[in-house]
Amino acid sequence: MNKKATGFYESFDRKDGSRTTTYCAGCGHGIVQKLIAEAIADMELQDDTVFISPVGCAAFCYYYFDCGNVAAPHGRASAVATGISRSIPGKVVIAYQGDGDLGAIGFNNAFQAANRGDGFACFFINNSLYAMTGGQMAPTTVAGQKTTTTPYGRDVSRDGYPLRVCEVFAQLEAPTYIARVSVADTKRIMQAKKAVRRAIEIQRDGKGFAFVEVLSPCPTNWRMDSIESARYCTDVMEKTFPLGCYRDRSSEAEIIQPRKATTTLRDLLGSSTVVESVVDASFPTIGMKFSGFGGQGVLSLGLVIAEAAGRAGRFVSWFPSYGPEQRGGAASCSVVMSGQEIGSPTVDAPDILVAMNQPSLERFAPNVRSGGAVIYDPSIPVEFKPPTGVRMLPFPAIEVAKNAGVPKAVNTAFLGALSAHDLLPIDDDHLLSALADSFAAKPHLVEKNIEVFKAARQTVWEDKVEMGR
Ligand code: SF4
What whole-number distance in Å separates Cα of residue 70 and Cα of residue 49? Predict the structure, then answer.
């Protein structure tokens, strides 16, 4: 009997609790996903599986698979799989990608993961075009194939040749398993089932990178019915993309020991003291934004505060954002500190904003929460109406840093000001030790920055506080 795989949810919320998916009739996605869902359920791996959904027709896999789910940006499922397989070793990590997603936008992510032999299974659904966006040519479009962007057929002299991903990956040393299968008919589906299971077994056994390309019909964009599109798969696509197992080293592959992340916050700051975060319901969640130009020490300021909060036993996140310029471009970072685990490192409505230039002030101050505070240098004119209930605190950080003999340490002056104004619920010992460690590579700057911090703390400026209206 044709049963629903128990690796799927009982019902799919995307379709009002029904069991229908978003896929068109005759589409191969549903078949491949059923094979994966059956495999993880039969192997009792659902509770240990993280499934990474792509962008494309399969974007809603997290509505279907009853396991851990992460949605990746376009082309990045393999990169996300690399991160997850390293950060939570021992899990079965599955990246699911289409041919626009993997073959074009994210090719290098998948290629480098394959070259490193990262510990995840990558299922690559090849339907020879960009399906979700209406059928444009993809790297896998076969010679002569008509798509919306090749209405006269793909001309290899103009458009290049179809990309054979299995054959490319087979040149690499690291992958454990590489296979190309099809879901065009029952016999092929049974072969695909074996390949899917082999790839997942390799993950269960910790034996490295497994790649399964699946030729998959897309009746809608091929403008064919289900039977014609299945025939197109076998009669046309297989000539360009021959089916077969390109590599299976699973029997001789050694179990790969999980790799550690290469850099941690503590590595960056040169600290050897690891403090466990403690759940403390009485400690509020505080979102902070630090913003200015690249080169002003905006990211360092946030990093020092994050490190100090970590040393104080708080949960903390630090999330930088900056442009391509080394100096002078916009730079900002978000810091969240909390007595609870942090759900998201992004801060859209900060409690505290440190704005080190006018564009930052204008961009972020209107979003500060009521009851929050904006701290900025008074040399920056406030040419907007501050939000209601927000304290606007002009602190002369440039002057303080200059008078202390370290004009570049404006960020440290702001740190001292935050501390002096009780805006940071972190004691000075933690702030100063984090500040000192942040100059591990430039120890001659430690004392100077501590002087700036102390000068900022002693600066009288409360009477300049303006209240937003
Ligand atoms: S557009 Fe093509 S790939 Fe997308 S769901 Fe429909 S048949 Fe499947």
Answer: 11
Indicate if the pLDDT at residue 178 is higher than 80: yes
Q: Are 398 and 297 in contact (CB under 8 A)?
A: no
Per-residue pLDDT at 269:
54
Strands in 294-423 per DSSP E:
315-322, 330-338, 352-355, 373-376, 391-394
For the Cβ of 23 lying below 6 angstroms from any atom of ligand 1, the answer is yes
User: Exposure of 268 by Cβ count < 10 A (0-12 exposed, 13-18 middle, 19+ buried)?
Assistant: middle
Nearest C-alpha to atom 6 of ligand 1 is from which residue? 24
pLDDT score recorded for residue 224: 97
In order of their start, the domains of the chain are 13-248 (3.40.50.970), 265-467 (3.40.920.10)
SS3 content of the chain, % helix, strand, coil (to 5): 35, 20, 45
CB distance 218 to ligand 1 below 6 Å: yes
pLDDT for 464 beyond 50: no
Please choose from 27, 232, 237 the residue to mutate so as to test ligand 1's pocket, defined by most ligand atoms within 8 A of CB.
Answer: 27
Quick one: pLDDT at residue 276? 81
Distance (Å, whole) CA 325 – CA 303? 20
For residue 26, pLDDT beyond 50: yes
**Distance (Å, rounded) from C-alpha 410 to C-alpha 399?**
8
CA of 208 from ligand 1 middle (Å) equals 30
Give the strand pairing for 244-248 and 121-126: unpaired
Distance 241 CA to ligand 1 centre (A): 20
Task: Report CA(447)–ligand 1 centroid distance (Å).
Answer: 63
pLDDT at residue 468 above 60? no
Q: What is the mean pLDDT of residues 312-340?
A: 86
Q: Any idea what DSSP says for residue 8?
A: B
Q: State the pLDDT at residue 237.
A: 98
Give the residue-averaged pLDDT of 402-428.
93
